[in-house]
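Researcher: I'd like a structural prediction for the single chain below. Treat it as a standalone chain; there are no partners to consider.
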Amino acid sequence: MRESHDFDDFGSRRRGHSYKDEWECIWSFLIDGLQGQVRFHPLEDWSAFQSYKPPDPSDSIGPPREGSPPNESWSDVKKQIRDRKERGKIAVGYFPHGFLFQWLYYLRGFKNLMIDLITEPPQLEDLIGMINEYNLKLLEMWLQMDVDVMYFEDDLGMQDRMMINVKIFRRYLLPAYTEIFKRVREAGVHVHMHSDGHVIEAAEDFINAGASILGLQSRENEIENIKRTCKGRVCISLYLDSQSRIPMGTFKEIEEHVREAVLNLGSKSGGLILNAECNVETALANCEALCQALEKYQRYYSN
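Model: Treating it as a single chain, here is the predicted structure.
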């Protein structure tokens, strides 16, 4: 018997709701079910940095990826992972959404951070170090849970370029990613790194840093670019085009999009995961077309 689900229950992501997270950022939500925004940045003024204390990762698992308040203890997580293992399922550990780059502008504010990356105030590297130290402590908690995969999500891209120059990315962010990913791989755990937007310039860096699964969006990065950079080197977790072809494409266009992804990025040895979103503007007929295309090509290389 299928479990029932209340699709009108958006949890913390309710329109008009706001809360303060454990980092003292204040979130607000404008649309039911969608990601919120940080409206108060506790380190908007550097004068607050000297007395600022990050949270203790041993207290809780931190806010889930969607930015909702924590509702699970480590003992809850351990039980869930044990249950999954007993059922032969993969156990996944996860970091808060935007665990480094995004958390920098949650704390500083986006405009302030963009200026920081150009003017290079001495506090910037200290702030990155503080966040990375928290992340390493949080990681140790997860690795004690006997997980199979660690999931990291940090959105670095816009529609047609990265939010920051790739040279700045390599100077300020890549060393922290590399340190964390190395620790995960040394523990025999897979690294699943996801970033929304156009980030193809950094894909090679993510792979070299230790990512074994790389989440990329097809529309923003283009399938041919992803094929050239990633195929055969990393498991590609591809996000199909949820902006155009899925919500507005014809049945044939949706099927061709799925087929293009499978033929270009898949192989008999595997290495491809397809992800698909049906957002609020997507007609039910398009959802059905998407499901049929995914079912048609799910075993293309295994037949």
